[in-house]
Amino acid sequence: MSIMKMVPGRRNLARVATLLLLSGNAGTAFSHEHMPSGDRGQAVVTRPAKPALAISATTDAQGRIWLARVEKQTILVSHSTDDGQHFSVPVAVNTQPENIGAEGENRPKLAVTRNGTLHLTWTQLLSTPYTGEIRYARSTDDGKHFSTPITINDDKRLTSHRFDSLVSDGGDRLAIAWLDGRDRDAAKEKGDKFAGVSVYFARSDDNGASFQANRKLTGHTCECCRTALTWTTDGPVALWRNLYGTTTRDFALAHLDSGKLQRLANDEWNIDACPHHGGGIATGGDGTLHAVWYTHGKNRQGLFYRQVNGERMSAPMAFGDPLAQAGHATVAAEGQAVLITWREFDGKAYGAMTLLSRDGGTHWSVPRRIATTADAADYPIPLIHNGRAQIVWNTLREGVRIMEVE
Predict the structure, then answer these.
(1) Do residue 347 and residue 362 come from a single domain?
(2) Phi/psi of residue 100, each to 5°?
């Protein structure tokens, strides 16, 4: 089976996809002045309470599945030893309530190292409009207790810090990246123009006991799409939606240590608004980077996948059905196994979709709708561990489900 493009005639669907985009169902775009408060960092004080469906999941060396979710301004962490049939009693990460971003592309992040240390990051939304902090805590006793949360961004500015991503090398090294408004604010104070925001990151080489000073990866990036991180033999690599010129919002990636920036695709999505639609990246066993993203550019529209090997990139592979509002793809990899997940809506129910490759992304299974729900749903999360491919999906009606991908 060869790499396939599963949605022919994509250009003919451009008008339909545009209507879906602007309707708020497929990669919602908002003007910068009217961004939802939950994504800009504004404390939500006027909306009625509703369940936070945005969760995070990962696995450890023992094959346990760890879950992080937010309830009543508290991050709760639990684990399952039987593929989600039962979970341990949840443990609170933050003992003092915080207004935690847990909606759409903003959610706590979770990583477990080989020695069993659990790492958590999240965005704390502050009461001043459009402001936030990047927070971190860890557990060194198998999730029984967590350290007092600390703030990772060190600029001391009351500004926008959000859309954090977290990755570990499995040992003592850890990286956190996020979107940061400090350079934009500093430029405005001087009367200068600054398009977008910046990507900053922090490193720890002692298992999260301490962090180095914040470092700037790049400036002039999109303000409102999630960042993503993966660890390679050359250190951590970040993926984000970059600004090219003033309104072209295409994805870029870079090694944090070298800062070398690489454009993932020349989609030429020219839009002076916020897509709220980030990408995903994972590292295969041979060092190949596997990237997925959404675009509605001049050159291509929809969800795409490609492999990155140094300067070489495979041709973008389209997947998902734009008529079903395919979006918010994520990818996981282990060895030669690569799993892509995304969400679709057929007009009646949301579907958790999967694509699986067992040969490093050369050949793919047919797209499979592995589960559905008739109510609100989070984006499905891919997991690959010990040769097993699974997805974790949280829905309002069914709750958290963990499902095997055959």
Answers:
(1) yes
(2) -100, 130
State how far the alpha carbon of 294 is from the alpha carbons of 152, 267, 271, in Å. Answer: 29, 10, 14
pLDDT digits (tens, 9 = 90+) for 9-41: 333 333 333 333 333 344 445 444 334 333 333
* Domain shared by 235 and 380, yes or no: no
Backbone angles phi, psi at 287, to 5 degrees: 90, -5
Residue that terminates a domain, selected from 278, 295, 324: 278
Pair (104, 153) in one structural domain: yes
Do 169 and 227 fall into the same domain? Answer: yes
222 and 302 share one domain: no
Q: Looking at the structure, do residues 255 and 291 belong to the same domain, yes or no?
A: no
Q: What is the dihedral of CA 110, 361, 260, 112, to 10 degrees?
A: 20
Contacts of 274 (CB under 8 A, 6+ apart): 29, 30, 31, 32, 35, 39, 222, 223, 224, 225
> Nearest 5°: phi and psi at 14?
-60, -45
The domain of 132 spans 35-278
pLDDT in tens, 227-281: 999 999 999 999 999 999 989 999 999 999 999 999 999 999 999 998 999 999 9
Query: How does residue 50 score in pLDDT terms, banded at 50, 70 and 90?
Result: low
**Domain end position, chosen among 227, 253, 278:** 278
**CATH number for 92:** 2.120.10.10
Which pair of structure tokens corresponds to residue 114? 């080989």
Residue 228, beta-bridge partner list:
239
pTM, 2 dp: 0.89
Looking up tokens 């005639």, which residue turns up?
9
Least confident of 4-8, 53-57, 78-82: 4-8
What are the C-alpha distances in Å from 307 to residues 265, 284, 312, 360, 370? 11, 10, 8, 9, 24
Element (H, E) at 23: helix 14-23
Give the number of domains in the chain: 2
User: Which residues on neighbouring strands pair with residue 282, listed in sequence order?
Assistant: 290
